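Q: My labmate handed me this sequence with no annotations at all. I'd like to see what the chain might look like in three dimensions before we decide whether it's worth expressing. Could you predict it?
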Amino acid sequence: MKSLDVSRRNIIAGVASCALWPKISWADERGRLKDRAAQKDILIGSAVDFIPEPVDPSFLELLTQECNSIVPENAGKWKWIEPEPGKLSWQAMDRTVEFAKQIGAKINWHVGLWQNGGMPEFMKLSSGERTDFEPRLDPYYSDRGTLTPENYWQRFTAFIDGVAARYGDIFYRIDAANEMFLGSEAGTNSNLRDAVGMRKGMWWRVAGGANGPDWLDPFFHYQRRAFPSARLVINEFGIEADERNQKDKRAALRQWIENAVTRGCPVDGVGLQSHLVADKKYDTQGMAEFCKAVKDLGLDIYITEMDVDGSKLLPTMTPEKIDHAVADYANLHVQTLAQHGQLKEITWWGMRSDLNYTAKRHKAIGVLQPSLFKSDNTPLPLYNSLLKTLEMVS
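A: Here is what I predict for the chain of 394 residues:
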């Protein structure tokens, strides 16, 4: 693999070509949520993509008013930065970083190591090596895949070094490892999940996952050396509901965290994606116990990709009632994390509902409102209820 040819000076040229961001024109009362959260030492953030451009100026204005934390939704993923070996594309990430700087927001990076996606085709296992055709193995293999136990470390370290060379130690939080676990949906299929609940993804396979859960530690250590100031988190989804699958994954994540801290792995916190599903029963007690255990280890909790899927409520509830149900569910989650853990961040996977992945996935833009704002930038019930929730948090 060709090493990443980058220079800190190169970013200047990319940023210089950016259009000026819109000037602030909203009333002074905007940004109440950000201000309220700041009183509790909690950041309010959003994902934003400069893929494709142009980005809706009113959305950028909304983020300017409401956020003090920004994360690239796709631009920071390996498959966007280096779609082909040595073929680098920094433009979208450059613009995300510059936008965060211009509005005075902290910049997070998603993602350092993704077990379940986000990789260019050449960074996957060769399809010729595949022996089990379980569909859930599809993200790990490609006809153009050339990832092996012999080259994975050189490729990973070159990628991390390239990002560090371009941006320096600027990131507040890094999703150092993303989607590393599977719950009981894997069943008894030993090709999907190992004995401690870790997903047998491509990185697990090439980096010695069969030898035990400490296979992940070197990836954290290398990112710590490259970004000494960043908060390195292990980022996971689907652990909040009161159902066997999610409880199983939560237990596996907790066990890994406890053991990682004992081993001296430089993990600073737990990233909870928090793609919540409003028709599932929330496991308040289980999540409270999880948050307390994380706090007792001296680690923080970060909500990294929040939204609420209310699609299954549509047949029985009016849109107005769904909006309130979404607000109630989200606030139960935030309240549980803040009361029982050390909550440091609430980042939305698109702060405006029409730009949120959940609404897009269900092809229900304008019907589903999974985030804080409508398409015209007016706040939904979730916004005001979250204000009240943060006011009650001690």
